[in-house]
């Protein structure tokens, strides 16, 4: 994405340059990302951006959280594991035997997700081939956006918002929890120095600059490199009275706070305190998200049939009979595969009639997500004390009219949908502020978002 920002003139726009698939690859060692392919495609996108716009000032990088690459010197030790790989489940008990979950929560403030980096690293060490995975060989560990920044600049850093999803950063300090790292037996020296959104990571490596035809002076700037952190920057909300749902593969549902909430109630509700931009706290819970729909579609398409998503959602909207509302948070929906089969299995176990047609499955997924979104907003409000009057939906889910309407109806609160490209907008705004094209607090940046991308409103009573 190319972003153009001029806060004084009140302009903020995005130009879409390149989009490419980024799917998992199953290798003998498990489910991985094709990092090499990802890097090839994103550098081609950057070169294209530099051809279109010769005065690019900086580059900001964000991606999904928790996953990492291991390096020895400059060399990547294999393709990064995908967080949906099955290896993590077996490692959880071992970690909790050393640091019980209640203690972890006090230290790192994170909800339990079996793929948090802390469990992945424990799994890495217990690789089934008897090796310690690559951890013993590595001299640095970089989360995906940091790994991209390293390829581009040669600098090894850990951007704080994403580092906060590892489980190894103190919720109150924002720094690596060295004591925990040592107790868990991870090599402390692999963790890179923490930087904050807005910090400069310096110039491109000369070879990269030449390869991409980069304009002179372009630099890489740390942004909220956790995609959800960047998305929250671009939610045009008043955090004192609003909740947000950053809805794509996941539905990240919560509120923005000044201070973490690590009470027993927050822990029991499995709410996370992830680091936000400008020291804010993203107090939220991961709901399964549109993955339920996209993975079902992928299953139906496995023999080559192409499904039109718009038509499927239109058919889902016209289903009139009541459909099953299942627990969208059930861990069985995490792994890739036959999601419709697992939904039917959940229904059978709970004595609920399972959807029959694809339209009914799609409707059942939307209803279950809307119900989980509404319930999670209520929980976020109770746990944090924020009196939620409005729900903002950003990300791809903001385009899903049925989902937004049903979330408004099931929550009894107005839903403000958009911007769809919140992650890219939040990324660009933090760069723009670092470059002096914008200034002020997140509220000032959000005012610009609200005027450039007016949200679409869904009333709770609308039919
Ligand atoms: C969304 C996301 C989410 C994480 C998950 C791994 O893309 O970053 O915030 O929990 O991916």
Your description of this structure?
By secondary structure, the protein is α+β, with helices and mostly antiparallel strands. It folds into two domains: 221 residues, Nucleotidyltransferase, domain 5, CATH 3.30.420; 232 residues, Nucleotidyltransferase, domain 5 (2-Layer Sandwich), CATH 3.30.420.40. The strands form six sheets. It has a seven-stranded mixed sheet, with helices on both faces. Helix 9 crosses helix 16 and helix 12 crosses helix 14. The longest helix is centred in the C-terminal third of the chain and has 27 residues. The protein is globular. The two termini are 36 Å apart. 6-deoxy-beta-L-fructofuranose binds next to helix 9. One of its GO terms (molecular function) is rhamnulokinase activity. Keywords: ATP-binding, Carbohydrate metabolism, Kinase, Nucleotide-binding, Rhamnose metabolism, Transferase, Xylose metabolism. This is Carbohydrate kinase. InterPro entries: ATPase_NBD (IPR043129), FGGY_C (IPR018485), FGGY_Carb_Kinase (IPR050406), FGGY_N (IPR018484), Rhamnulokinase (IPR013449). Belongs to the FGGY kinase family.
